[in-house]
Amino acid sequence: MEKSPDAFRTISEVAEELDLPQHVLRFWETRFSQIKPMKRGGGRRYYRPQDVELIKGIRHMLYDQGYTIKGVQKLLRENGNQFVIAIGRGDMAAVEAIAQQKLAEKNAAASEEELVIGKPKVKPRSRFFGLGREEDGPVAADDGRLSRDNRALLQETLFDLLECKRLLDQVR
Question: Domain ranges in the chain?
Answer without folding.
Answer: 9-101, 126-171
